[in-house]
Fold each of these.
Amino acid sequence: MLDEYRDRELSPAEASSVREHLKDCAECTEALAGREYLAGVITEAAQIRPSEEFVQRVSLLIEETGKGYRQPLQWPMPAMALALAASAFIMVGLFSSTPNEISQPGLISTTFEYEQGGPMPVMERDGVIDNHDQVLGSLLEES
Amino acid sequence: MATDIAESRLIELARGGDGDAFGHLVRRYEADVRRLATGFLGDTSEAEDAGQEVFMKAFKNLGKFRGDSAFSTWIHQITVNHCKDMLRARKRRSWLPWNSREDDQVPDSESLSTSPDEATHEIEARVLLGELLKGLSPDYRAVLLLRESSGLSYMEIAQTLGISQDAVKARLRRARQTALEARRHLKASEGV
C-alpha cells in the first residue's frame, strides 16, 4: 500500500487511511522516506535540458541514412505476389518457343524439345530435368 | 485534447515524410527519452546515442504505429527495448563496470546543472544510482524508471511493458526494496 500511496494510485479514502497510519508508524514513515530518497536520486542523476542540437542531429542522421519514409507494403503476402510474377514469367518463357537454350548450373533454363504434337516442354535446373510443376514449387519454396 | 489533436496531425504529417513535423515530435519527447535512457545506461553519452537511435527507429517505423496506444507509450516502448538491447550487448562485451566509464566524469553540457558543483553533484548521483540499480534486472529497472523518471501511472507502465498492473505493482515494490537494500549495504560499508 505504501508504494501505491507514494505513487498516488490510491483512492482518496485509502490515501487518508494510509496517512493516518503513518502518523503512528515510524517504520512505515521511514520506508516512505526511503522511496522519496530513491526518487530524488533518479531525478538528480538525469537532469536533462531539451536541446535543439539533439533534434538537428536526429534530422541529420535520418537524412544521412537515406531512410526517407516509405509506405509499408500493403500486400498481405508479398512473397506470394513475387511467386506469381515469377510463374507468369515462366509461362511466358514456356510459350515463346525458344529452343535449346544452354543453361549454367543453378539457373533455370528452358530447354525445349517441343514441336507441334511433340513432348511437353520440360525445364532444366542445375542440370536436372524437371517438370514445370516441380520447378514452380521450388520457386515458391525459395520465395 | 488540443495537444492530442495536434500530435495526431504531427504524426500524420511525419508519416508523409514531413521532417519538420517529426522534428516537433522529437522536441516533445527528447528529454523524457534521454532521461529514461540515462537511468538505464548510467552514461549520458551512451544515453544520447540511444536517444538518437530511438528516434531513428521511430521515424523508420512510423507506418507501423496504428494509434491503438498513445504515441508516448510507443516511444517509451522503443526506448525501453532499445536500452535493454544495449544492456545485453554491454554485458556480452563485458566492458567497464556500469558506473566507472570515463564519460561519466565529464559534466554533460546539456544537463540542467549550471555550476561545476551542481554538475559534480549530478555525476555523483549517477554513480550512486548505478550502485543502487546494480542488482536490478532490466525488467525491474524498466518499471522503476518509467515510474520515477518518466512519471507514468501504473496503467501507463502496464501498457508500455505489456504486463498487468498487478505485475507493475509487484515489480515496483521489489525494485524499490532491492535498491534500498543496496543503499543500506553502501551506508554500512561506508561506516566500516
Amino acid sequence: MNANADLSNELAFARRDALMLRARGIAKTFTLHQQGGARIAALHGVSLDVERGECVVLSGASGAGKSTFLRCIYGNYLATGGTIAIRDDSRESRHVSLTHASPHDVIRLRRTTMGYVSQFLRAIPRVSSLDLVSEPLVSRGVGEEDARARASALLERLHVPRRLWALAPATFSGGEQQRVNIARGLIAGQPLLLLDEPTASLDAENRDVVADLIVEAREAGAAIVGIFHDEDTRERVATRVVGLDELTKQSPSNTGILQTC
Amino acid sequence: MSAREAGTELAEGYNFAYLDEQTKRMIRRALLKAVAVPGHQVPFASREMPLPYGWGTGGLQVTSAIIGRSDTLKVIDQGSDETTNAVNIRRFFARTAGVATTTRTADASIVQTRHRIPETPLTEAQILVYQVPMPEPLYRLEPRVTECRKLHALADYGLINVKYYEDIVQHGSIATTYDYPVLVNDRYLTSPSPIPKFDNPKMHMNPALQLFGAGRERRIYAIPPYTKVKSLDFEDHPFSVQRWEHQCALCGSRESFLDEMIVDDAGSRMFVCSDSDYCSSRRAAQDAPGDAAKEAA
Amino acid sequence: MTVSAHVAPLLSARGLSKQYAGRGGCVEIDLDVYPGEVLCIVGESGSGKSTLLNALALRTPSNRGTLTYRTRDAGTLDLIGLAEPQRRMLSRTEWGFVHQNARDGLRHGVSAGANIGEPLMAIGARHYGRLRETAADWMARVELDAARIDELPSAFSGGMQQRLQIARNLVTGPRLVFMDEPTAGLDVSVQARLLDLLRTLTSKLHLAALIVTHDIGVARLLAHRLMVMKDGRVVESGLTDQVLDDPQHPYTQTLVASVLPV
C-alpha cells in the first residue's frame, strides 16, 4: 500500500506544479493510558489536496477534529493512519512524506516550508515580542537588524503598540498576544501555512488587518489551510470552504471504535 | 682551597664510592634511560645512604654510580664549597672512593651541586649532578601522581600556564623565581631543581651532561649535552632573569648571581658572588694578572 | 532558498549499553544528535539517563554497542576504543561537558579568568593579554560582571558558578556540549535566567547539545527533540512539542500529566 501511495504521490507532485500538500486517509485515535486505555477517535480518514494560491477553510462543529487535523499536518500530533506528503523540490521525488519522516526532517520542514499559527500563544517566557517575531527570520539567516526592521513593520501593521515591543507577551491582553502570534507565524512567508483560529480574540479592525495579511500571502503563492469561525474573515480569505466530514471517507475499520468529541 | 690528591683519605671496608656494584648498575641503567628521553623522570630504587632524606641522597647516588678513580670531584652548596654539606659530601667521596677533590670548577670532571649552576662555563668533558628535592614540576598544581603521569605522557602542560596566569594576576609578573620549570627538548616539562631562575639559561645547549637525582622521591632524569631547554612564559610576559644594581663587593662582578649578606647588627649589607670559586678566581686574576698568565704557560 | 542536502548526524549511537554487573544503567540505546540541535534526555531518578550521558561522553566505558562522532576535519571517529590522547583532544577541542554541580566543573584555586582561559591554554594559547580579553568577553556573554575576572569561583553564587562553568566549556568553540542537569539545585529565578542563557547560546552558536534533565519544563524550553527514559530504556522519542502534546507511551503520559501547572 505504501509503495503505491508513494508512487501516486510522486506522480501527483510531478504533474501538478502547484500542489503543496497531499493528505490521504488521515486517522487519529488517542489512547489514554491514564484512563484505563480509553480510546478517542478524532479523525476517521481525512483526505485533502491543497495547491499554491489556495486557502482552504475547514468548517464544521466545534470539536469535530479540525484542530487535530492541522496539528497532524504540522507534526505536532502523530497521525495513527494515512499519509501526509508535502512538496520538497530539493528531492528527486519532489515531496517529503511527513508521516514517515524522522523528527530531524520534520524540524527542517518546519523551518523551510511549513508555518503554523496556533490558537494560543505558547511563547518562550522572558523574550520580548519584537525578538519573538524576528526570530523566524534570524533562524533563516536574515541579519538581526533587517529582521528587527521587518518585525517592527509587521507589528506596526497589526496595531501592536510600540511600547509593548520590548516586553514579553505574558502580560499582554489576549488580542495583543494573538497578534504577536500571527506576526510570528506569517513573517517568514512560508509556502504552506496552517492557521488555527488566528482571529479568535480580535476586534473587527484587527481582524481586517489579519485577513489582509492572509490574502497577501495567498496571492504571493502560499498554500493555506485554516480554521476561522468568523464569517467575514472566512469570506475574504477562503478560496474553498469544506467540512471535515466531506473530506472524510468512511471505511469499515473505523466503525466500532468509541467516538467522543 | 685547592685540589686534594687522590687516595689520601681512603677508608677501609667500603665498596668503591660506597654503593655496591649491582646498585650502581641499576642506577646507570636508569641514567641511560634518562639520557635517552631528556627531561623524563625515570623511577629508581633509591638506597639508604649515610645522610637523611632531604640532604642530597639523590645527587649522592648518581655521583656514586658514575664516579671513577681518575675523576676529580667538586661539591657546591648554593655556590659555596665551604658549607657543612659541601664539605661533608666531598669528604664522603674522598673516603669511600679515594678520588681527587677540588674547589675549582675548571679542574673538576664531576660537579655535584645543590641549588646553583657554577658561573664558570662547563665543557664537554664535565658532568653536572644536581640534588633535587621535588622532581615533579606540576606537584603543587596537580597533587595526584597518576594524573601527573598522564599529563606528562600526553604533553598536556596547560596547567602550568594557569599558574603563571594567576601569578601575573596577583603579582603583575610570573612569581616563580627559583625552581622555574623548563621544557626540555620541546617535550618534557622538567623541574631544574631549586636553582634561581637566573641560572636557567645556562641549562640551554650546555656542553656538559646534566644529571638529576631525587633520592627521597626516587626519580632520576637527565639533560644530554647541547639540548634545547626553554623556560616557559607568555608571549607578552617573556622570561627574564634577575639583575642587581650592585656589583660583587669582593671581585666587582656584574654578571654573576649575588648573595646579600648582613654583616653587622646595624644591618649593613654587602653583595657577594654566590659562586665562591668564581669569585676567588676573578680576584686571583685581578691581584696577579701576570702570575696567572705565567701559570697558564 | 534551496534546501541543502540531508545533513549527517554529529553523534550516533546504536545498541549502546552500559550496566553495572548486569543491572541498572542503560540498555540498547539508539540515538542521533544533529548539528545545531538540542536533544533532551528526560527521565526520573534511576532511569539510566546520567549513565547514558556519561557513556556518550566517554566518561565511562560502554559494555556493548557502537558510537561514532563526525569530527570537524578528520572524518568520522569510532568512539568505542578510542585512545586516551585522542579522547582528551576531542574533549578539549570539539566537546564540552557541563556538570550538574559547578564545583565539579571548575578549578577552585584559581580566578574566574584563569578558569575560562585554561581550556585555551591547554590547546596552546600563550598570550596573557589576549587570554584576559577573551575571558572578559565570555564573562559578559554569560552575563557575569567582567570586573570580577580575578575573583575566585567561591566568591560567586551557585547560579553564577554555573555560568562560569558554561563559559569555560564554550570558550573553545565546541560543536557538541553535554549537560548533566544544568539547572538542578538552583533557585527558580536563577534557573530561569540560566535556561534563557542556554537557549540563546545554543541557537546563536549553532551548538548541538545533549541535555539530561528530570524537568520537563527545561526540555520544553530548550530542546528540539526529546527522549524519555525509564528503567534504562528509551520508551519514547520525537519532536519535543509532539512528545509533550501527543504522548504515546503510558509512562510519558504519566510524566506529562504529573507536571505541576503554573
Amino acid sequence: MKRIVLLTLALLAVIVVAACAPAPTPVPTAAPPTAAPKPTEAPKPTEVPKPTAVPPTTAPTAAPKVELRMMWYNDGSEGDVMRAILDKFQAANPNITVKMDTVAYANLNQILQPQVESGTPPDLARVTDLARFQGYFLDLRPNLSNAAAWEANWSPAFLGALRKVDDKTGLYGFPTQFTVSGPFVNRTLFAQAGVPVPSDTKEKVTWQEWVDAAKKVATATKTPYAVAIDRSGHRLWGPSLGMCAHYVDGLYETKFTVDSPGFRNAANMLIGWHKDKITPLEIWAGGGGGYAAGNDFFNNGQLVFYFSGNWQITQFDKLIGNKFDWDAVPNPYGDCGSTGMPGGAALVTFKATKYPKEVTKLVEYLTSDDVLGEFSAKSLFLPGSLSLSKKGIQYPSANKQMNVFLKEVGKLTPESYYLQFNPLGQTLNPEMRDRLSQVITGELTLDEAIKRIQQKMDDAAAALKK
Amino acid sequence: MQSVNPQAPSRQWLSGDILLQPFLWVISLLDYVLAPLQTLIGYKRMAYFFVLPNLLIFGIFILIPMLLNFYYGFTGGDSILLENRSAVGTANFEKIFTCKDFFSPNTCAEDLFWRGAWNTVTFVVFQVGFIILFSLITALALNRDVKGRGFFRAMFFYPVLLSPVVIALIWKWILQYQNGLLNAFLISLGFDKVPWLLDANWAQFWVIAVSVWAQMGFFTLILLAGLQAIPKEMYEAASMDGANKWRTFWNVTLPLLMPTMTVVFVLALIRGVQVFDQVFVLTHGGPGTATLYIVQYIYRTAFEFRNYGMAAAASLVLAIVLLILTIGQLMFQRRQEAA
Amino acid sequence: MQTIATFLTRRRSGKHFDLTDIITYAYLLAGVIVMFGPVLWLVMSSFKPLSGLYEFPPSFVPYKQESVQVQGYDKPLDLFDVKMLDGSVRRLAQISQVGIGARMIDPNAPKDTPIDIRIEQRTPVRSLYFEWDNYVGAVEKFPFLTYLQNSVIVTVVATLVTLLINSMAAFALSKYQFRGRDAIFLIIISTLMVPVSVILIPAFLVIAKVGWTNNLWGLIIPGAATPTGVFLLRQYMLTIPDDLLQSARIDGASEWRIYWQIILPLAGPALAVLAIFSVMWRWNDFLWPLIVVSKTELFTLQVGLNAFQGELNQQWNYILAMTVLTLLPITIVFAFLEKYITSGIATTGMK
C-alpha cells in the first residue's frame, strides 16, 4: 500500500510541476472542415448605408489587463481569418487579449445555453439562433462612439431579432455573415456522364429535372449518391416554399401551420430519395438528433447534387480546390416559384460580461468597413453590412460561385424572412428535422409526424402567451 | 471474509521510508490541530470530524440536486435558474403518463420518453442476458488449467479499460457503411453491404453487441473468482456419488455460483439501465430514435430542448425504477443469505 | 452432451489433450481475436492515409501510394501502373481523377500531352508505409497534451481526494458509535443507484452557483463522495479488530494518528481496489465533463476526442490517430498493472 501511495505522490508531484509550467499547447483555432450552420438573419438592403468610420484605436495608457472570451464555430476557415484580425486588435490594444473557444456547430447551443442561463457566458459568441438568448445580451448603445450611425448599418429585421418584444432600442450584436441556401453541383461528373447541366440552358429548372439529371450522372459515373440535402428543417423550408407551402403570416405571428401540400410534397420528395437509395443514409437516417451535413460526401466526389448554402463555399474552395469542377446553381423551382432561405450568424455580446467597454470597443473594431470587408472577403462570406454591400466585395477566389448566391439574395420571398426571424421558427426547425428523420427510418408516418410538429408549435405558441 | 492480521502490515522496504518522511510530517502537523479538537469533544465525537468531508460533498453535490430535481419536475419554463421557473404542478408527470397504449410510444403525449424507456428495456434484457452467458462460458473456460491463462484473462479484460468514446469510435470505424471492415468482409464473400448503424434493427443489435464486448471481461473476472472459490471437495464428493459431469454442473457448480451470479446480474442490470456514453458517440440515438435510451432522452430534453421540467420529471421516474430494482436486489440477497 | 458437460465441470484438465481442451482453446483464441482484433484494426487503420482508408476492399497493413515529383507540377503525383489499350503496361503519374476517368502523365516526359484513361485501367503502385502524418496533423488540430494533462490532473487528484474522504467516512461509520450513524449510512447507500443522469440539471445548477463551471475542481470534487467507496471500505474496516484501536488509545494515540497509522495501512487492499475503480472511472468519465467544461483548454481526453470527431465528421485518418493516442495511456498502465487490477476486481466482486 505504501508503494502505491509513494507512486501516486511522485506522480502527483510531477503533475503539479508540469501544471505550474507555462501553458503547453495552445488552443487550436484552426478550422477543420465543419458542418454548416443554420443561417439566421437577413439584412434588407434598402436603406442608404452610412459607413461608420472608426478611427484606429490607440494604445491606452496603463489600462488594466482584460481577457475577453469569444465562443466560435467554423464553417470553413473563417476562424483563422478572425484570429488574424483579433491579433491585429490585440496589437493595437495591448491590455486586451481575446481568446477564441471553437466548438463544433452541432454542439454550440448545448454548450452555450447552460452557460448563459447560469450567468457565466463568454463575453461574445457567434450564434445562429438569435431568439434563443434574447434578454441576455449586452446593450452596446451606451458605449458605442456613434450609436445611431452604427445602428443604421444593419437591417432592422436583424436588429429586431435580437430584441425582446417590447425592446425597441437595444443594440446587441452584428451579423458576421449573411447566407442563402441553395444547391451545388459537381460539373466534372456531369461532363464525364455527358449530361448537360440543366441550369446552363434553362432559367427555371424544377426539382424533378435536377433529380433526374443527377441520377443519370450518378449511374453513368458510378458515383455513390445522386442528391443530398443537409439534415435541417431550415434547409427544407426553401424547397417547400417553392412548392407552395405556407407556414406563418408574419415576423411576430405565433400561429404556425405545418400541414400544407407544399410541405408534404417536399417531405415526400426527401423520403423518396431515401427509398430510392440515391441519397446517403448517414445524413437524415444516421445520427439521431442534431444537425448533420453532406459536405464530406460532396468534397470526396461521392455526390452529384448537394443542397446546402453559400457558407460551404469557403470550405469547398479550400478542400476541393482543383480536384474537380464544382459550381453553385440557382435554387430549383416549384409550382410557386423558387426561393432560398436567408440566414447567417451573428456575433453577440452578453450582459454578464465583466468588460462592457472593452467588448464594445472590439465590436466597433470588427464592424469597421475595412475590417469587416477584409473578414468577408477572406472568409468568402456575404456581408450583412449595408455599407459594404453597397461598396461591393471582391472575393479572392470562388468569385463566380459567390455571385450566384448574391443573385439569389434578390429572389428571397417575404415568408422566407418570416420563417427565419420569427422566434418560433427556431422551434419549428429542429422539430421538423427530428420528426422527418423518424418518418424516414419508419418510426412514424408522415401524418403522425405532421401532427406532432403541429402539437409542438401550438405548445410553444401557448407558452409564449404566458 | 478473513480477519485482517494486524501484526503484518507490509513493511517490506526501508528506503521508501525516507520519501515517506514529508508525508508523515504533514500528518503530524495536522495532529497539532486535531489533537486539541479531540480533547475538546472527546474521542468518540471525532467520528463527526471524519465523516464530515464526505457528508459535505455528498450533501451539496448529490443530496441537494436530488431534492432540487423535485422542484424542477414540478415547474415549467425554459430557464435553468430556479427563480425564473413557474409552478405547473404535476403537468410534466401527467404528460409523461398520458398514453393510449403504453406499449406503443406513438400514442403517447411524450412519445420520446416511452421510446427511450422501451428501448432501454430491450437493451437491458438482451445485454444482461448476453453478458451473463458469455461471461459464464469464458469464466468456465478460464477456470480450466489452460496454458497462458493470464494472457487470455488480460485479453478479455482489456476492453473494459477503454473509454466509451474510444470503444464507440473503434466500432463505428469497423461498421462504416462504405469503408468498414465488416462490409469489406461481406463483399469479399459475395454478399452485399449492410447499413449496420443506419438501420434501426441492426443499430440496436450492434449497440448491445458492442456493450457486451466492452463489459464482458469485468464480469468474467468476478465469475472466475466465484468459480475458483468452490472447494475441490465438492467436486470430489459429487464424483464419488457417481454424478456425471452435467449433473455436477447443475447441482454443484451452479448453486454455489449463484451468489456471484446474482452480483453480476444486479451490477449489469444497473449499469445497463444507465447506458449513455457509448451510444451517444456510436449512434447518437439514431437512426431516428432507434437507439435513444432513457438517459440520452433526459440529456436531450434538458440540454437540447431546454425542457428542464420534463427532463427532471423523467429522471425522477428513472430514479424510482432504479430504487425498485435496488430494493428488489436487497430482498433477493436477504433471502439468499437466509437459505 | 457429455463433452459439453465435461467442459463445464472440469477444473483441472488431466494429462491428455482431449476434445474439451480443443474446444476451450478454440473458444479462447476466438475470444482474443474478437476482443483484441478491433483494437488492432484501429491501430493499423490509423497509419493509412485518407485515400487508403477509402480504398475498397481495405488492406490489413497500411500501404501508401508511391508518388513522384513531376516537373511542372507543384505537388507530387501518385504513381500507377496503367494497362494501355495496346496491352502494354506503363508506369504513369496521375494528375487528377474524378468519377470514372483519370488524367495521367509520363513522369519522365512531363511535357507530353496528358493521357486520359478510365480508372479500371490503372493499379496503384504501393509500398508499405506508416502515415505518421495522421498523428502529426491530428496533434496539430487536437491539443492532445493539454487534454492529457487535464485528464491526468483530474484522475490523480480526484482519486486521492476520493481515497481520503471515503476512508475517513468509512472509518467513522465502522468504528464508532454516534448519533445519526445509521441514518447517515442509509442515506449514503440509498444513493448508490443514483447515476449522474438523474441529477444532471440540478447538479449543473449547483456547480454553476458555486462557480465551478469551466473549472477542473468542478470535475474533481462532486464525484469524490462515492457511496460505493464508502461501502467498500467500511466492509473492509469492519474486520479490523477493535482491540487494536483500544490499545492504541490507551497508549495515548489521537484518533487522527490511529486513522493514519493503523486503519489506513490495514485497509490497504481495499484502498487499492477503490483506487483502481476511481482511476478507471475518472479517466473514462464523459457525461459530466461534457456539461461542466466548455473551454477547450480544459477538456479532458474523452470530451476532446468526442468534440474532435464531431467536428471532423468523415476525416477518419485524424480521428483514428487520435483514438489510438487516447487509448495509449491506459493501455500502458494496464500492461504494467494487469495482474494487480484483475485480482483486485476479482476479490471485491466476491463481496
Amino acid sequence: MQDANILEAEKINKRYPGVKALDEVDFDLRYGEVQALVGQNGAGKSTFIEIVAGSIQPDSGLITLDGGAHPHLDPSKSIELGIQTVHQENQLVEELSVAENIYLYNLPKTRLGFVKLTTCIEAADNLLGELGIGISSAKKLTELTPVQKKLISIAKAFSRKAKILILDEPTAALDTHGKNILFDIVRRYTKKGLSVIYISHHLGEIFEICDRVTIFKDGRRINTHRVAETDMNVIVKEMIGKSTTSLIIRQTATGLDAGEPSLEVRDYHRQGAVDHVSFSVRQGEIFGIGGLVGAGRTELARMIFGLDEKDSGELVYRNRNITPTDPNDAIRKGIGLLTEDRKENGLVVIRPIFENISLVRFAKNRGAFMHLKRERSDTEAISKQLNVKTPTIAQLVINLSGGNQQKVVLAKWLFAEAEVLIFDEPTIGIDVGSKSEIYGLMDGLAKSGKIIIMISSDNPELISVCDRVGVMRFGKLVAVLDGEQKNEENILKFSMGVDEKDET
Amino acid sequence: MKVNAFSREGLRRRFSQSTMLVIMIVVVAIVATIVNPKFLRITNIINIFQQISVLGIVACGVGMLLVSGYIDISVGAQVSLLGIILSGIIQNVGGIAPDASNGWLQPLAIPMAFVVSFIVGFAMGLVNGIIVIKSRVTSFIITLGFASVYKGIALLVSGGASYMLFGRFEWLGRGRILNVIPIPILFFLGIVVFTHIVLKFFRYGRFLYAIGGNRKAAYVSGINTDGIILRGYVVVGLLNALAALILISRVGSALATTGEAYALDALASVIVGGVAITGGKGTALSFFLGVVLIGLLGNALIIMNVNPYVRDVVIGSIIIIAVSISHITSDGA
C-alpha cells in the first residue's frame, strides 16, 4: 500500500486573463503520506488545491481519486469523496457553539426540526477527545482564542470521512502547543491511511512532519523530493528558479551611501503585529521591505503613517521627531502612504481623476474655497508628467486600468508634496508596462531626494528597485540585506526562517 | 461588447439624470394640464413653488448630507418639533391675539422664535451627528430612532394640541416681493444657490463627495471624516430651522405632526435627483429638479382630483423605483 496513489493529477491547466496559473501540472499523493507543497506567492499552490477541492474548474487535465477518474469535481462532490480542506481563514460562525460549528453541514434534528444540541455536543466532545483537542464543545466560538479556533477548524475536517486532508498554512494561527496537537493528529491518522497535502511557508515544519515535498514555481511543478534526501537550500533554490532579475533599471545610489540617515524608524511595536522594528533610510534611498504575507509589513506601514494604533514607535526625520498622530498629521509632516489596496483605501473611484489627485493637497491646506481653475491645470500637469493614460482628467478613476490608477495615487501624494513615501505593494495587479513605468518614477523620486520605503512580496522587484532590503518575519525585522547579500535566495531564506534554530 | 439600449451602459449613455428629470417634469405637467387646464396658470405655478419651498430647503440639507453617504430620516420630526417650539414661543410670549397686551416682552416674541429655532436646530443636528459617528451604526437606524424621540418631545410639549399664531407672523411665509414673488421662493432659490456654491467651490463640499465615494480612502487622504459628517448633520438641523420658520409662518398654526411628511419627501426628492443612496454623487441642480418633480406631482394629483392618500403610494413608489434604477445603472457598486 505504501507506494499506491490515492490522488493523481495529470496535466492540469488553468489560465486566467494574462496569467497562466497552472501549466501542465502533474501531481501524485500516496496513501498515508504527508506531502508538502511549497512555492512563492503566485506559484499556483492555492489554485491547485482549490481544483482538488472542486471549487475551481481546470481548463484541462484529469484528476484520479482512488483509481476513479473525476473530470468534473465540485465542492460537495470533493467532500463526498473524502477530500477535506482546512483553509487559511477559519470558516466558522462566531455566534454558534463549537459543536454546532463542527456539525453545521448536517445538524442532528428532532422530528419537529429543532436542533438536538445535546446529541450534537456529545458527538463533538467525542470527536475532540479522540483528536486530543481539550476544548469543551458546548462553548461558544467567541469564547475561544485564535489558536483554539484553528484547532476547531481542523476538528471539523475530521467530522466527516476524510481520506485526503488539505492543510493551507495551518500553523500561521497556531502556537507551539497547538502545533504539537496538529502534528500529533497528522502522525496518528496518516498511520491509519490518511493522506495530507501540507502547504506552508515554514520550511522547518516540512522537515518535521512531511514525507515528500513538491515545489511549484510560476504555475509549474518544478520538482518533488523525499524530504529525507534533500535540504532547505535545495528547496529554496528551486523555489527561486533561474534568476529573473534582468529587469534591473536602477543603479544603487552611489555617493549617497556616505550620507547621514535621514529618516529613522525607531522601535515600532504593537503586540501581536509588529515586534520592535527599527531601521533608517538615507536621503535618496529606496528601502525595501520583504517577507511573507502576514509578516507585519502592512501593519508597520500603517503604524508609521499614524493610521493604526501602536504600543511604541518614533519617526525621526532630520533629527526632528515627526511621529504622526493620525493621517492628517502625517500629511502635514510630509509623509505619504500608497496603500496596498488601491480601491479600498487609496482612491475614490466614482470621482474624477483630478479630484482624486487634489484630495490630499486640499486636506493639507486650510481655507474654505478651492481654486478650481488652478486645480484643473495643476492636476493636468502632474497627470501628464506621470503619463496617466486618459483622454481627460475629468474621467472617473473607475474607468482606468490598474497601472493608471496607481499613477493617480502616486500623483495625489506628489501633488501634496510628500517627502517620505511609503509604497505598499505598488505593482500588485499591474501590467508589465506600467510596472516598469512605476519603477522608473520611483527611481526618479529617489534621485530628486525623496525618501522611499517599498513593501513588496515580489522579490525580484525588491532586488532590482531597492538599495537595501529589510526582511520581516513574525513582526520582526530579521535582516537588512545590502550589496552582495541582497539577493532572492537570502530574502526567501530570512522570510521563511531557513537558518533559524529550531523555532519551537 | 455591443451596447444594448436597455443595459446598464445603454441607460447611462442615453440619459443624463438631469435631462431625464426635466423630461419627467414636462410629462407630469402635460398630463396634469390635459386633465385640468388650470394647472399651467401662472398663479398655480407660483403657488406650487411657494408650496415646495419648505421641502426644497429641507431637501438641500438632506441632499448635501447624502452626498457623503449619510442619511437623516429625522428631518420631518425635527421640522415638527421646531414648529411647535417656535409657535409656542410666539403664542405664549407674543400673546394670544395681536392686540393682547403682554408687556415689554411682546415685541421680542418673533426674534426669540428665530433665535431659539436656530439653536434647537443646531443642537438636534449636533446630537444626531455625534451619535451616528460615535456609534458607527447605520445612520438610517440612528436617525429613525431620533425621529421617534423628536416626535415624542413635540407631542409632550404641545400635549397634542395645536398652537395658533393669529396672524402675528405672516410676512415670512405669506409675504410677496412686489406683490408677485412669494418670499419663501426667494429663500428656496437662495438655499439652492448656497448649496451649489458649497458643493462646487468649498473644500468642505469636495470632502463630502470624497467621503461618500470612499470614506476609508478619504480618511487616509487626511480628511477629518468625522468632523465633516458632523457638520453635515448640523447644516441639516439649521436648514430645518429655516424651513420650520417659513412653514409655520405660512400655515399660521403648528401641530406635532406638521412636518412629518418632509422626511420621505426630501429623501425622495434627492434620490430622484440622482444622489446615490451610498453617496458620492449629486449636485444642487439635481436636488432642485428632484424637489420640483416631487412638488409638481403632489400638486398635480390634487388638481386632478385624485384621492389625497394616493400621494403616499406615489412617493413611496418613486423612492423604490429611483433607488433601484440608480443601483442598476451604477457600476455594479
